[in-house]
Amino acid sequence: MEISLISGRDYPNTYRSFVEMFPDNASCAAYLIKLRWPNGFICPACKIATTPRQGSRGRLTCQLCRHRTYAQAGTIFDKTRTPLTTWFEAAWHVSTAKNGLSAKTLERTLGTKYRVAWTMLQRFRVAMVDAELKPLSGNVEVDETFTGSVKQGGKRGRGSAKSIVVIAIENIDPKGFGRVRMRHIPDASGESLMTFVCDAVVPSSVVHTMDGAATMDYLNMGSPKKLQSNHLQAIPHMYPCRAFTI
């Protein structure tokens, strides 16, 4: 069930209002209860709507079946010793950081141990992932990159021993970028790249690849069997890349 929340009323839109809205653990627990049961508490055991008896640390006891639960049960805040005020403050910093937030920065900001900050950040990242990711559509640019430590000597580029990550990103007209998909692939062959393209991009989209990329070479092959019967057609493009409709 979706809940319509209004900025400034149902959640803070400035850090000052955040501090005023969540001054202690009790206010944080009350907010979780409001989000989980907007139409009133329903016991998870007997499934009956009732007014629970509230205890410390957000503990709720059903007055009918005596079942005990917590406001943070089943959430990313469950089974941790970290106070809810720290969790909420971390959520504010993670969601408002424009350039992302590292565990080390979160450690210094909250004044916690690094392990605590790292665990909190990992839980937030998992919770923010959309479980039903939809494939990219429209104009999509695809390219691969190599990641790994700096090593003296050895091969460079496609012949290197570094890990290969292929990236697909939506291009939004007139300018800007949309959603991004990334995947580690075992090699830079056209077949490996095209498998990623077929999984990450919906049919009828326009895929742009740089000249010389293995993806472009594989698209030129135009094998309906390998491309899961997706028809490919090369189309002209003004930029130094090639575009294909899949």
Tell me roughly what share of residues is in helical segments: 25-40%
Number of strands: 9
Low-confidence stretches: 211-246
Strand order of the largest sheet: 6-5-4-7-9-8
Distance between the termini: 36 Å
Kindly report the average pLDDT value: 77
Sequence of secondary-structure elements: HHEEEHHHEEEHEHEE
Tally of individual helices:
7
Query: If you compute it from the alpha carbons, what radius of gyration comes out, rounded to the nearest whole angstrom?
Result: 25 Å
Shape: elongated
Short description:
With 246 residues, the chain is α+β, with helices and mostly antiparallel strands.
Write up what this structure looks like.
The chain has two domains: 114 residues, no CATH class; 107 residues. α4 packs across α5 and α6 packs across α7. The strands form two sheets. The chain has a six-stranded mixed β-sheet with strand order 6-5-4-7-9-8, with helices on one face. With 246 residues, it is of the alpha+beta class. Helices cover 30% and strands 20% of the residues.
Helices and strands, with pairings:
Layout: H1 15-21, H2 25-36, E1 53-54, E2 59-61, E3 68-70, H3 84-96, H4 103-110, H5 114-128, E4 139-147, E5 163-171, E6 177-185, H6 190-200, E7 206-210, H7 214-221, E8 233-235, E9 241-245
Parallel strand pairs: 4-7
Antiparallel strand pairs: 1-2, 2-3, 4-5, 5-6, 7-9, 8-9
Helix pairs in contact: 3-5, 4-5, 6-7
